[in-house]
């Protein structure tokens, strides 16, 4: 019997407008199984969905870089894995020098920062309704106690995305992980910020076994999570290489695939 469900957000729970459908919401709010969102998003970007679903369980942001619980409009940090400040400063500066037209932004636990307002920033704002804080890279990294959880690059040219991905890896920083999502996003987090590692921490806290949990996902950054759980459910809109990790394939994110998957595969018969 499934005792806990973990779900990705973009391309999985959310539709193309970045919203939760009524069908998904109704199924989640009425089911007897706790749900944890597992996303590359920051807590400020996850907050509207958490509120709409009325979730009180532990949540996972930054691809596993942060485990937290929403309390009284704020959030309580339960576990964190953030980037080494000197490392992310070096990567940010070299990317900005080598690829000046690429959309670059970074997140601490509660804020979103960029040095430029461009097409990528506008796209992310439309998707999340969050406002970026504009500041120079020099000013941003001057605060030595700042905890940076994610650098996000938005690259609209696939060839350039591949090139930048390889370039970041070539810098040789062992402490980082580079994730691709949504076709145009490249996200740099701590190498300890993995969805599976964060889920394992919740499993240990709640004495959950592999066979107790299901997970919904659609992208490359969901693979570690899909490999970990007893019931990996992949969205119909996922690429074929992601579907190889599925025990079940549900409908697409535009067809209320999470609700369909919960009702068909997760709920007691």
From TrEMBL:
It comes from the Bacteria. GO terms for cellular component: cytosol. PROSITE patterns: COF_2 (PS01229). CDD domains: HAD_Pase. One of its GO terms (molecular function) is magnesium ion binding. NCBIfam families: Cof-subfamily, HAD-SF-IIB. PANTHER family: HAD SUPERFAMILY HYDROLASE-LIKE, TYPE 3, PHOSPHOSERINE PHOSPHATASE. This is HAD family phosphatase. It comes from Vagococcus silagei.
């Amino acid at each position: 019997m499934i005792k806990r469900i973990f779900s990705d957000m973009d391309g999985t729970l959310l539709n193309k407008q970045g919203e939760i459908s009524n069908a998904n919401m109704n199924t989640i709010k009425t089911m007897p199984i706790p749900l944890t969102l597992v996303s590359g998003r920051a807590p400020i970007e996850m907050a509207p969905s958490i509120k709409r679903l009325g979730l009180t369980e532990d949540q996972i942001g930054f691809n596993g870089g942060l485990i937290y619980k929403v309390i009284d409009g704020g959030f309580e940090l339960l576990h964190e894995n953030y980037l080494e400040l000197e490392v992310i400063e070096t990567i940010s500066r070299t990317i900005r020098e080598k690829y000046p037209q690429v959309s670059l932004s970074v997140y601490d636990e509660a804020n979103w920062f960029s040095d430029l307002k461009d097409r990528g920033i506008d796209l992310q704002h439309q998707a999340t309704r969050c406002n970026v804080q504009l500041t120079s890279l020099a000013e941003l990294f001057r605060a030595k106690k700042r905890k940076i959880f994610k650098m996000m690059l938005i690259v609209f040219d696939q060839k350039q995305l591949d090139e930048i991905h390889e370039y970041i890896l070539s810098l040789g920083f062992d402490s980082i992980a580079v994730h691709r999502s949504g076709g145009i996003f490249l996200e740099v987090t701590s190498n300890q910020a993995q969805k599976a590692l964060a889920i394992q921490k919740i499993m240990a806290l709640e004495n959950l076994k592999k066979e107790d949990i299901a997970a919904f996902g659609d992208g490359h950054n969901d693979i570690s999570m899909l490999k970990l759980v007893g019931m990996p459910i992949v969205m119909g809109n996922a690429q074929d290489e992601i579907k190889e990790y599925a025990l079940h394939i549900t409908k697409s994110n535009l067809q209320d695939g999470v609700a369909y998957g919960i009702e068909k595969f997760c709920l007691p018969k």
